[in-house]
Specification:
The chain is built from twelve helices and eight strands. By secondary structure, it is α+β, with helices and mostly antiparallel strands. The protein has two domains: 54 residues, Phosphorylase Kinase, domain 1 (2-Layer Sandwich), CATH 3.30.200; 200 residues, Transferase(Phosphotransferase), domain 1 (Orthogonal Bundle), CATH 1.10.510.10. Belongs to the protein kinase superfamily. CMGC Ser/Thr protein kinase family. CDC2/CDKX subfamily.
Amino acid sequence: MQSLRDGNYYACKQMKQHFESIEQVNNLREIQALRRLNPHPNIVTLHEVVFDRKSGSLALMCELMDMNIYELIRGRRHPLSEKKIMHYMYQLCKSLDHMHRNGIFHRDVKPENILVKQDVLKLGDFGSCRSVYSKQPYTEYISTRWYRAPECLLTDGFYTYKMDLWSAGCVFYEIASLQPLFPGVNELDQISKIHDVIGTPCQKTLTKFKQSRAMSFDFPFKKGSGIPLLTTNLSPQCLSLLHAMVAYDPDDRIAAHQALQHPYFQVQRAAETQTVANRRAFFPKYPTVPELPRHNWPFSKECRKQV
């Protein structure tokens, strides 16, 4: 959509819900989250909130990106280069780290909600986000099934921000292989697909999940084929990070700030450090201007009154 005010084009998200007041609009989680998280190079920018008091309609005007990750990889015959995959995943982990540090988790990380423009990646659509400090249990049927973490499938809403890392791991695999990692057709099949690849969880993890579920469940032991058998074009460091992101137990799953320090991103960290160094070199620190000597200038009574 083109703005009549500045002539620029923006992405317009028209909300289905209607609102009664501006206070109700300002309490919307998505708006609160974007205002808290902006500006950040890897979070989509919210430019304007358009609320019509008469009709109660609401639209969010956000920056316009070229496409989402799903559109980027759909129909491709050959995977992206590992350099490009690494670049995108580093930015995704940076967006998650910024979000989690600010007390928010997304709950719907998937290719359609990850936007790209040239080489820049940004996380968007915060309609399902929650505060990490809000009380459990949360909504059970959250996030798209293929990217839903085991704790979201096996507990009655007892999950944490670590679910975002699982979803990001699934996206990671999909970008690298052009195939979904766990394409379940329903919830039961989703769990089965996860067990086919990474195996059934240990008894300790299973017991933990059972404590947060009203209905009892059990699974026959399955070792799992492992991720390397699904694709052969992933480097050892790539597989190492991917395994850490899709750890079955959320307590064992890597956090975003830890993922950013993984050896897989060594080149990205070095490039980032060099960029910062170049900026400092371009803008040198100028010597401090010496302080001028103080003089006790005589003021008239009129001047003193004005001062």
